[in-house]
Design a protein that fits this description.
This protein has ten helices and eight strands. It is of the alpha/beta class. It has one domain: Rossmann fold (3-Layer(aba) Sandwich), CATH 3.40.50.300. The strands form two sheets. It has a five-stranded parallel sheet with strand order 2-6-1-7-8. Bound molecules: cytidine-5'-diphosphate (CDP).
């Protein structure tokens, strides 16, 4: 740092600082709860309930990766063309309204949940250019009274100063069973063996990519949800949060 910088800061922080610059109350950043974990670990459902319980905003970062993946299929940008994908993402018109994801003004909430789109999302998420193009869009969700953000790198990269960081895990079998049930309920066909294979491939890609690999932040609380219900998981997270905010 230059000597001039020191002098500037020194003067403005000293007793001679003008009244308009004196702190009136300590800085209180908008609270963020990050919920990261592997595919089908229950993050999405749990994050939505935690957000609703606390009256917080919700960021489903996976939906952003899925929207980018769907757009790349629609606009025919190759899944390995990292600079092309980044350019596409920067130009995308994305909105979330009442739980619906819109791409260029059209509701695509159903399409982005298809396995083909999920697999492409995981494939394009390995590129640093793609991840960087989504950073500002994700941080823009941090608004008062607070945010619950679910994804893979919410606690490690996007919100490193989060109030509470949770990392959910579950066995691959438990996750495949959940994903199977979820797809059936939505009217999509699904085969258990295919799901297990896809989950393992996606875990492998998420954990071993060099850009923002899936891993718990050093200060995250890890919770294995294999034997827990959604309600028990939510209760634990709200309990941790309440203990911090009292
Ligand atoms: O439903 P699932 O948990 O498989 O995925 P998702 O949360 O909807 O996200 C789709 C894909 O985007 C994941 O498989 C990840 O590879 C990627 N992703 C990511 O890399 N980082 C995030 N913060 C969120 C999703």
């Amino acid at each position: 740092m230059k000597r001039d910088d020191f002098e500037f800061n020194d003067r403005n922080n000293g007793p001679d600082r003008p009244d308009s610059m004196k702190p009136t109350r300590p800085f209180d950043p908008t609270p963020v709860i990050t919920i990261d974990g592997p595919t089908a670990s229950g993050k999405g459902t749990v994050a939505a309930i935690v957000a609703a319980t606390l009256g917080f905003h919700l960021l489903d970062s996976g939906a952003l990766y899925r929207l980018a993946a769907l757009a790349s299929i629609r606009y025919e940008v190759a899944k390995d063309d990292a600079p092309g994908l980044a350019k596409l993402i920067e130009a995308l018109h994305i909105t979330f309204r009442e739980g619906c994801a819109q791409l260029d003004g059209v509701d695509v909430s159903g399409e982005i949940r298809q396995e083909e789109v999920g697999n492409r999302a995981s494939a394009i998420a390995v590129y640093p250019e793609v991840r960087q193009a989504l950073v500002a869009r994700q941080r823009a969700f941090r608004k008062r009274p607070g945010l619950v953000a679910d994804g893979r790198d919410m606690g490690t990269v996007i919100f490193p100063d989060a109030t509470l960081k949770v990392f959910l895990t579950a066995s691959v079998e438990a996750r495949a069973a959940r994903r199977h049930k979820q797809l059936m309920q939505k009217g999509f066909s699904a085969n258990m063996d295919d799901l297990l294979r896809d989950l393992r491939a996606r875990d492998d890609r998420d954990m071993n990519r060099s850009a923002a690999p899936l891993r718990p932040a050093a200060d995250a609380k890890t919770l294995d949800t294999s034997g827990l219900s959604i309600d028990q998981t939510v209760e634990q997270i709200i309990g941790w949060y309440s203990a911090i905010r009292v």
